[in-house]
């Protein structure tokens, strides 16, 4: 906290010093341009110029916030920036002219025209906005680099945690139980189950140091995982997959689909009388996982679930949307474009 307060104080001091120097430079420039006496009411002139510069800084900062909120296009930013600067200069000039001529009753004789003042104000104001733009650009670059490194670290942690979750005793115990029963009842399905289990683990192990994967790879791995679930739950659920071909080349967090499906089984009851209906939609803009709600009383709170996925996507500036209307539970996953 003390360090943060120190940084804020230093930033404020730098801002005050910078604006004071800039005001002094503008004062000297205006005195040379207007051919006035440098030492006549120097402190009053410097104070007036500093107030103008300070007002411009505040207005330009507000303009920068608006530009950042509504547009990232360079051409639009230039047009909107120049328009904003024009409005700011006109408003400030009008306000200061009113103060000088109407409030303080200073004579306008010998004073420069409004057009000259406006041109001078624009040449003064443009560098201020450019300085703010440069500061914003460099800070954005630094933040992007820091976020990228954080995302890589979090992605590696995610892979380790996911791998540990997939090979936990419960998962192995359930899989081996199903396999042992199939060996005697249906050897052919036992063989298929073994291959699907092997491919599921092989996919998990292949994710080492991969922060993102293609949707088509996730869907392919999901088929093996759903086969395991089908052998385990048999006719207790229905799985539907709708896929847009164009979505195959989009990227998502590894094991997103598997974790969401696992979340469905973990939090719901699946029986032949009340089967779960799980629907996965691989759309053009979003990946959607939806299921009917049949709450389970015995919910395993451990493991990786929706909250962790939400955190992972937030690292890339994407929001995971969760909708629960009491009958359907829907999770909408955004694609991550590099």
UniProtKB/TrEMBL annotation:
Locate the Signal transduction histidine kinase internal region domain: which residues? Answer: 159-235
Swiss-Prot/TrEMBL keywords: Kinase, Membrane, Transferase, Transmembrane, Transmembrane helix
Which superkingdom heads the taxonomic lineage of this protein's source?
A: Bacteria
Q: Where are the transmembrane segments?
A: 12-34, 46-67, 74-98, 118-138
Iron-sulfur recorded as keyword: no
Query: Which Pfam families does the UniProt record give?
Result: His_kinase
Key word Transferase present:
yes
Q: Which GO terms describe its molecular function?
A: kinase activity
Protein name stated in the entry? Histidine kinase
């Amino acid at each position: 906290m003390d360090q943060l307060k120190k940084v804020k104080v230093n930033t404020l001091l730098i801002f005050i010093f910078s604006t004071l120097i800039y005001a002094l430079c503008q004062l000297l420039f205006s005195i040379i341009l207007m051919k006035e006496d440098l030492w006549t009411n120097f402190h009053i002139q410097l104070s007036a110029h500093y107030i103008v510069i300070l007002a411009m800084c505040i207005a330009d900062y507000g303009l920068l916030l608006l530009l950042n909120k509504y547009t990232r296009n360079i051409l639009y930013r230039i047009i909107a920036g120049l328009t904003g600067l024009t409005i700011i200069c006109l408003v400030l000039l009008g306000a200061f002219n009113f103060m000088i001529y109407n409030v303080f009753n200073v004579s306008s004789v010998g004073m420069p025209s409004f057009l000259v003042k406006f041109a001078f104000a624009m040449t003064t104001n443009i560098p201020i906005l450019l300085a703010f733009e440069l500061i914003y650009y460099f800070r954005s670059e630094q933040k992007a680099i820091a976020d990228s490194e954080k995302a890589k670290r979090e992605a590696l942690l995610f892979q380790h945690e996911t791998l540990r979750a997939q090979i936990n005793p419960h998962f192995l115990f359930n899989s081996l139980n199903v396999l042992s029963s199939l060996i005697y009842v249906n050897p052919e399905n036992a063989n298929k189950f073994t291959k699907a289990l092997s491919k599921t683990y092989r996919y998990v192990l292949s994710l080492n140091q991969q922060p993102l994967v293609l949707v088509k790879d996730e869907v392919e791995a999901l088929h093996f995982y759903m086969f395991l679930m089908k052998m385990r739950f048999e006719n207790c659920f229905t799985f539907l997959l709708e896929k847009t071909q164009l979505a195959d080349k989009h990227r998502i967090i590894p094991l997103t689909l598997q974790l969401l499906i696992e979340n469905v089984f973990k939090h719901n009851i699946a029986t032949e009388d009340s089967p779960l209906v799980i629907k996965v939609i691989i759309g053009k803009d979003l990946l959607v996982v939806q299921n009917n709600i049949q709450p389970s009383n015995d919910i395993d709170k451990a493991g990786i679930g929706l909250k962790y996925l939400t955190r992972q996507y937030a690292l890339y500036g994407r929001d995971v949307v969760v909708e629960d209307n009491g009958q359907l539970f829907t999770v909408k996953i955004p694609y991550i474009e590099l």
